[in-house]
Design goal:
Order of helices and strands: EEHEEEHHHHHHHEEHEEEHEEEEHH
Number of domains: 3
CATH class of the largest domain: Alpha Beta
Distance between the termini: 35 Å
Strand content: 15-25%
Radius of gyration: 20 Å
CATH topology of the largest domain: Uridine Diphospho-n-acetylenolpyruvylglucosamine Reductase, domain 3
Helix content: 25-40%
Shape: globular
CATH architecture of the largest domain: 2-Layer Sandwich
């Protein structure tokens, strides 16, 4: 879309440059689709040169400019790793290429969620090669699959502030409503870090849409952590992510292995999601989204109470 109000485009990653009428530009797939009649400048971070994906023993850091296509390739790289490390940076000590570990996918089974969530875009290859992880989060659509992925895996966003500082915020606290984030004017999402503890979890994925190639109407991800904790993250059916966490040592009535019973999980959903929090648009009525949330939550609960060790999707 030709946004005829734009007076200039500036390549910068400095939030101090921001002023009213500016918008941060990464892939631009949403910005140029919807257009604007009020923007005057675009602050382009597309040429920032940030490393898209950094893998370490502590987990994975995704740059805000990491594209969907780059993220989608990560599980395959982990399964069939490259034989050489990335070129060394002159000002940095050499870093081990953890993707060269042939058992990384076995160590981090939650990596399987990446492709399930990327596929939930239901987008063309052109969108995949331009749309960014950070852009999807900052657009804050209830059905944003990068919100679903990173919130479910305890992602922590690093935000650059206009005064030159940084702050960390959990993804479920970054996206706070339909099209609304907790970012202050001018703040820039720099990266999202997913901890290794969450990546080692056994997971289950469920998604529903009103059509085969439609936007997600309900998307739930369940986790079973190494310590036995059960974590359920509800997205798409709700205006913002909702996360339920059940510690194995709690007094919650549980089935085998510490997963909450069906009745207790349903009661927890009742308490966590008031009726007005269910999303209402052309992709699904609130009543349908609520019913499907309970249905898929129980499917995930039942799956993770078993000894299955594989991530599955539906």
């Amino acid at each position: 879309m030709d946004m005829n109000t734009i007076e200039s485009t500036i390549r910068t990653t400095d939030p101090g440059c921001w002023r009213p009428g500016d918008a941060w530009l990464a892939g631009g797939t949403v910005l140029f689709s919807y257009g604007s009649s009020v923007l005057r400048r675009l602050l382009d971070i597309g040429a920032a040169g940030w490393t898209p994906i950094t893998v370490s023993e502590g987990g994975i850091e995704l740059a805000a400019t990491c594209t969907v296509a780059e993220l989608y390739a990560l599980p395959e790289r982990a399964e069939t790793p490259a034989q050489t490390d990335s070129p060394a940076q002159p000002d940095l000590p050499p870093q081990p290429n953890l993707l060269a570990q042939p058992n990384l996918l076995a160590q981090w089974p939650a990596l399987a969620l990446i492709r399930l969530c990327c596929d939930s875009f239901v987008a063309s290859f052109k969108i995949w090669n331009m749309s960014t992880v950070g852009g999807n989060l900052c657009t804050a659509l209830p059905a944003g699959p990068m919100t679903s992925l990173t919130a479910a895996l305890d992602g922590i966003a690093t935000v650059w502030t206009v005064d030159g500082g940084t702050r960390a915020v959990a993804v479920e606290d970054l996206v706070i409503g339909d099209g609304t984030t907790s970012l202050a004017p001018g703040e820039l999402l720099r990266s999202i870090t997913v901890p290794a503890e969450a990546l080692r979890s056994r997971t289950a994925f469920r998604r529903l849409s009103l059509s085969n190639l439609g936007r997600s109407g309900v998307l739930l991800i369940g986790r079973r952590d190494e310590d036995g904790a059960f974590v359920l993250t509800v997205t798409a059916s709700t205006k913002r992510p909702v996360k339920l966490r059940f510690a194995p040592s709690s007094t919650v009535p549980a089935d085998d292995g510490g997963v909450p019973t069906a009745a207790h999980l349903r009661a927890a959903l009742d308490a966590a999601i008031p009726e007005e929090l269910y999303h209402d648009d052309i992709h699904g009525l609130p009543a349908w989204r609520r019913d499907m949330t309970y249905r898929l939550a129980e499917e995930i609960r039942a799956e993770l109470v078993t000894d299955s060790s594989s991530t599955t999707g539906a």
